[in-house]
Predict the 3D structure of the following.
Amino acid sequence: MNWDEILDSLLPHESNESLIVKEFAFPLLTALGFSSSEIIPEFSTGNGSVDCAARRNVDGEPEFMHDKLNPEILLEAKARANSSGTKINLQDQFPGAPEGTPQYLQARKQLHKYLMGKNCARTQWGIITNASHVQLLRRHGKVVVPTTRTLAIDKNNIRSIVQRFKQHLERSPRALTICVYNNKGGVGKTTTTSNLAAILRSKGKKVLVVDFDSQQDLTRSFRLNCQGATLSDCLKNRDLDVREAVVPFDVEKNGKKFHLMDVLPADNGMDAFNDDQNVNKIQGGSRRLRDLLSAFIYDYDYILIDCPTQWMFFSQSGIYAADVVLIPAKHNGMASLHNAAKVIRSYIPETRQNRDDGGPIALPIFFNGETITDAQASVAHKEIDRIISHTKKEFEFNLLPYFYPKAVKGGLDRTIFSIPGYASVAGAAFQNLPAAFTNKSAREQYISLAKEYFLYG
Amino acid sequence: MGRFDDIGKLMLLPLADIEPGQEFSPPTFMLAAAAASLQHTPEQRNWVPIVVQETGDYQYQVVSNHFVYAAANAADLDKVWCIVIDPHEDNIQQAKILSQEIVPKVNLRSASREIIEAALRYVMGQPGSPLKGIDLAKVTNHLEEADKSYWADLSPISTLKCGITKGKKLDALKQVFSLSPLAEGSKPERQKLEDLPTPELKKLAKEYGLAGYSKLKKVELIALLKSVPEIGA
């Protein structure tokens, strides 16, 4: 591929999107290993048509041109400038736009929509580009997460960008890593983790739960004991294999033993890391957990991390290790709303700065554990409206999609997903089983949560 | 739009030539206030037009924006600004939906989970809704997961065991859900058998005058019923 020629031929203010598709997107997909008969322009996703879609043909299976289903990758192209000459900037970070320029956010939203189309049920990858910037994103169920930052393209780095994308495409991770976190306690982090894990398992997913809290709440509620190497050993000693620290959590149902999930339990040795002095003994510090968990990303569908409230080693590690952060909040706990806002506008972006893959990202908050009356909802909405406008003014950060994900331009739908409380959910902690496993109505609630955020179709 | 018709045009029509479209009862104070607002405007011009269809020569009928029509009458206007629409059934429906005079229905056969949930939320939130006590998550899950491909209408919802019973609750759902017509060649009866509880199957067997069904298991009952030409075919 003669990239110098290709990049030289494009005008710096090229405003013709179809030219970018033809002169840049096609060569890019070709360089990624797709032949011309494996690329469909204007592909109909079932949710609108995307600029390009590509899938390698496999012997004995229908050709992509033929079945026009489940491309491996979608590509949404933009021009470099609009017709009046104003630059289209696709940066995911920009002064005054900590989460990316409006054009970038718009393009990402569009790609997300296409990836959810019914003809893309098994599509795993997406690219956004305008030949000046390019970003690779990964799709997992209903979630789309960046795999790279938006990279500025030039003649010197285009080959290495292609190489990097190729490596990602060749070995797609199987897992989505979810950290359940709120900087305010008592919002149901552990309950959410264990119940969500049980539901994902019941939907046929392979799940690993990581108890990354020295209080060991989750480990204790499942009555698990560490065997062999412990998680704290693995943090300190790089020679140990973290796979050996995994403990199966089996339950009995109707007299039959049943493997519910795998757990990486917390252990007594973890207490020491509440002291900064001891964290220094961990190579990589709060980046280490992510490294340890990378041993599992090709084996599990979901890795769920439960971590404590304080923004210290454990929770920093949990967020650093995550693809997405799921934030439970309480409608009647103003502190939990303010803290959720802080996690989204401060902790997560700060963590993102230290990673080179554009993650982690926050999922919209949900209300956990109580039935909400209309009057209470209106009080909560007022407070959230205040938080949103304050955060926009003070930090140039738009929290709206994280609090009111169903809002559209001109239509402010304030619906926030919520799980009503049940005595059974809290009580289940004493039964050593997630409520979603034993109680029918709790099960429905958590199915609903899993489908709202994670499960596609 | 043809050269000699008025479709799509904004026209100043005599109020007397326009017939009301449907019964409409806005709160009296709103009507009075709206009328006052119209009278207060220079030339008494209504800036939001009434949507009308042509029913004959110099005869019109209100399609939507009934409130404007009622206010114009209350204000005793001689002439009002109207848009004449193409009186196709779909266009009339669309005008009513866009002016929020009717609640648009969601096709349950193809609706996404998000839309099903949002529609249920809407019904539950209405004052005095019979759905107040239902479990939103449960109903959403069951409605989404049910195989609706052979449903001829919404009544099978009451067999989903999610708290929606026949009568008020089911009727409340009919406000927001519809079903697109069944595809040609689908066989509702035959598919339905598997979903019916055993006593229902026995009742069916009785209706068709079959013998020896009382001791059969469900699978055998279905097989027996399918041997009836009218059901099995």
About this structure: Chain A touches chain B at residues 406, 413, 415, 419, 441, 444-445, 447-448, 451 (CB under 8 Å). The first helix of chain A runs from residue 3 to 9. The longest strand of chain A covers residues 256-264.
